Amino acid sequence: MAAIDGLPALREVIRDHDLVAKKSLGQNFLLDLNLTAKIARAAGDLTRCDVLEVGPGPGGLTRGLLAEGARRVLAVEKDSRCLPALAEIAAHYPGRLEVINGDALEVDVLAHLTPPIRIAANLPYNVGTELLIRWLTPAVWPPFWESLTLMFQKEVAERIVAKPGSAHYGRLALLAQWRCEARIVMVLPPEAFTPAPKVHSAVVHLQALPEPRYPADPKILERVVAAGFNQRRKMLRASLRGLHPQIESLLEAAGIPPTERAERVTLEQFCHLARLLAR
């Protein structure tokens, strides 16, 4: 494993600080610094950006982000056992790494970041989807971040980039693709991690669009999509019946056969239906 800086190899860091990954925290440490540098490069040009990292653990991706020139990194780590290892990285990169010991679901990160901002993280499995949904559904758009470069279980990554008619297509795909360009940039096998998870992982890059792909009220669109996919085996005229007494007419006006199922309806059609419901 080639070094990307003058710091010890991650296996040494984990051994020296006795950092056994905790399942309760959703931890799986990525130890190959070549891979962490590759993930950092997938986040784009970081030299002009502050970068938010959630769940840095022993700091493998943190080191990749700093070595690739991130202007500044804010690392939010819930596990206090990791703080000494991260402090060593901060000392190696003076003034460029701030570490907060806290829960990413509760920390006000904007008080510590200066735009432009990108987010890059090997997200803990137990909070990854919740954080993604928060970042995709701010009160105003564009959001505070320019892009997200995030590691998920491969199945979750496939749900984010899924297309209509595929097995993975659902609410997460529509939520992500309505406001972002989303693509999988890397797939990693279980053995890349310590401990090895039971599934493959994948890195997804989401680039925020200046405005949503199609106009729609976010709350109405979410209601339509939720109703459709909560009963995805039902025809839409049945699953959406509670939204409007003339739902069949509205479906037809949106170009959607009332007998269609949600998994075959495009983002543009869902947005069209949301606009009709708003009227």
UniProtKB/TrEMBL annotation:
Any one GO CC term of the record: cytosol
In terms of InterPro entries, this protein maps to: KsgA/Erm, rRNA_Ade_diMease-like_C, rRNA_Ade_Mease_Trfase_CS, rRNA_Ade_methylase_Trfase_N, rRNA_adenine_dimethylase, SAM-dependent_MTases_sf
Task: From the UniProt record, list the reaction(s) this protein catalyses.
Answer: adenosine(1518)/adenosine(1519) in 16S rRNA + 4 S-adenosyl-L-methionine = N(6)-dimethyladenosine(1518)/N(6)-dimethyladenosine(1519) in 16S rRNA + 4 S-adenosyl-L-homocysteine + 4 H(+)
Is Cell membrane among this UniProt entry's keywords?
no
An example of a GO molecular function for this protein is: RNA binding
What EC number(s) are associated with this protein in UniProt?
2.1.1.182
What does the UniProt entry say about where the protein is found? Cytoplasm
**Pfam families assigned to the protein according to its UniProt record, in alphabetical order:** RrnaAD
Matches recorded under NCBIfam families: ksgA
Purpose: Specifically dimethylates two adjacent adenosines (A1518 and A1519) in the loop of a conserved hairpin near the 3'-end of 16S rRNA in the 30S particle. May play a critical role in biogenesis of 30S subunits.
Q: Tell me what this protein is called.
A: Ribosomal RNA small subunit methyltransferase A
